[in-house]
Amino acid sequence: MADTVKNRFTGGAGYAPLTEQSIGGFLESSSQVSNVLGGRSQDWSVREVGDGNLNLVFIVKGPTGGVCLKQALPYVRLVGESWPLPIDRAHFEHEALKAEAAVVPNLVPEIYFFDKIRAAIVMELLEPHIILRKGLIQGIRYPKLADDIATFAAQTLFSTSDLALPAGRKRDQQSMFSLNIELCRITEELVFTDPYRVAELSRWTKPQLDDIAAEFRVDAHLKIAVQELKWMFLSRGEALLHGDLHTGSIMVTSEQTRVIDPEFAFYGPMGFDLGAFMANLLLSYYSQEGHATPDDDRKDYRRWLLDTLETFWRSFESKFLELWRIPRTGDAFVPGLFEDEGGRRALEAYRFTFVARLLQDSIGFAGAKIARRILGLAHVEDMESIGDSDCRARCERRALNLARQLMLGRNSITSIAAVRQLAETCGEGDL
Ligand code: SR1
Ligand code: MG
């Protein structure tokens, strides 16, 4: 392996995974971080708390404050050293966080320090925030969630697209993020390919879901539908995506929302981010039977999840259209071409066509993102924490049935209300 490629994977001289012992000395080299923490390294407490699939995550606390440090490991943590993964994903994450902070500073963590050699990002400690997925499992309502994620998506997708950026700047950005190759490859294989073939790392609730897993592997129409989505993912660089916008990438309190972890960022189809968030609300929706208690059957909560799905889409749509209507600098849909009354009307009508197509893309991607969490390698705690495997399988089967319908039928779904109705139908009874 040439040295530059090798360094992308394992780091050059100077890279080593940080430990609870070595982290103090490293953080002391940043005056900004030292100022946040106060005191000296001997006064700081350090805890490794990473429970994600890829990285080390440390919480460091000092006399005057705390920080969170995320460091890329040269392999997939979930699988082990047999699956090498480039540590330069930290660079793409840092670049994406900067692009997001430029338009939604209140919805992302503040970055204090980035060390490219150590592939480490030191950021604001989000406290008392919790991971949204864990809040949804507990049945907690988040009144601002739908609108905040709609703002995040509308602003980040619009501002990085050809609607907002001059073509040269957009190409420049797109070319930089196009090197996030291995992280995109994870999505290409785990989301769009492995659930539809015999794959060594795939798993599902056995034996209960063996039949539906086999159906997914032989259904040619479904495989065409998912390959069409993969084609879009591979070839349509519409905007800078977060790339992994699930409910584990969002931290919340009842008043605040922060989107974290954009290491999968690249230029792709806008619907991929929108569909990821929708898919994870729907996974939560179908998991609720497994979290019901004698005091709370979670029926109202399930309704709240679908309300959140609907509000999210409606709010996204109106924010995106609003951004498109104000004066802008992008090279697509040049405003000067539509200045007369007829032109203005035609462009406004086209904007609605555009967001209607975006909904259909998002619905398809949502289906793919649901299926991969049940039939692929990486599952979600919403389902995994259901101890009774028959109950878990029932929840998962309903979700898979919806996923299949979303992928196959996306082009005939014309409203978010129709998605809700379909979700409710698939959630009824034993399928
Ligand atoms: C091998 S990584 C598995 C998954 O974890 C991340 O959160 C992404 O969703 C990825 O697909
Ligand atoms: Mg992540």
The low-confidence runs, each spanning 5 or more residues with pLDDT under 50, are: none
Q: Radius of gyration in whole Å, from Cα?
A: 22 Å
Query: What can be said about the biggest beta sheet?
Result: 5 strands, antiparallel
**Global mean pLDDT:** 96
Proportion in β-strands: 5-15%
Quick one: how many beta strands? 12
* Basic shape: globular
CATH architecture of the largest domain: Alpha-Beta Complex
Name the structural class: alpha+beta
Which quaternary structure do these chains form?
A: single chain
Order of helices and strands: HHHEEEEEHEEEHHHHHHEEEEHHHHHH
N-C termini distance:
51 Å
List keywords for this structure.
431 residues, alpha+beta, Phosphorylase Kinase, domain 1, Aminoglycoside 3'-phosphotransferase, Chain: A, domain 2, 2 domains, five-stranded antiparallel β-sheet, three-stranded antiparallel β-sheet, 16 helices, 12 strands, 51% helix, 11% strand, binds 5-S-methyl-5-thio-alpha-D-ribofuranose, binds magnesium ion
